[in-house]
Write a structure and sequence with these properties.
This protein has 73 residues and is mainly beta. The chain contains one helix and eight strands; from the N terminus they run E-E-E-H-E-E-E-E-E. Strands 1-8-4-5 form a four-stranded antiparallel beta sheet, with no helix packed on it. A hairpin with a 6-residue loop joins strand 2 and strand 3.
Length: 73
C-alpha cells in the first residue's frame, strides 16, 4: 500500500458547506479504495473523520477541520 501525506495548509475552505476539502487526481492515486488517517503525534496516525466524493477523474476529501493527513491507496 502506498500513501501521500498532506499538511493542513493544503485544505481549501468550501464557502457553501464551511467544510475543508482536498482534491486528488485519480491519475495520481489510481482507482482503488483509499483510507484517510489523521496525524496525531510525531508519527502516530489514526483513522480520520471524513467524507469522500468520488468523480471519474478525481476524489474530493471533505473534513470539518483541516489537519495533517495521510491518504493510503
Amino acid at each position: 500500500m502506498q500513501f501521500i501525506e498532506f499538511k493542513k495548509e493544503h485544505f481549501k475552505k468550501d464557502e457553501e458547506t464551511h467544510d475543508f476539502v482536498i482534491e486528488i487526481s485519480k491519475a495520481e492515486i489510481g482507482f482503488g479504495e483509499i483510507k484517510v488517517q489523521e496525524r496525531k503525534d510525531d508519527e502516530i496516525y489514526e483513522d480520520a473523520d471524513y467524507e469522500i466524493k468520488d468523480d471519474p477523474l478525481k476524489i474530493t476529501i471533505k473534513m470539518k477541520n483541516p489537519t495533517d493527513i495521510r491518504v493510503n491507496f
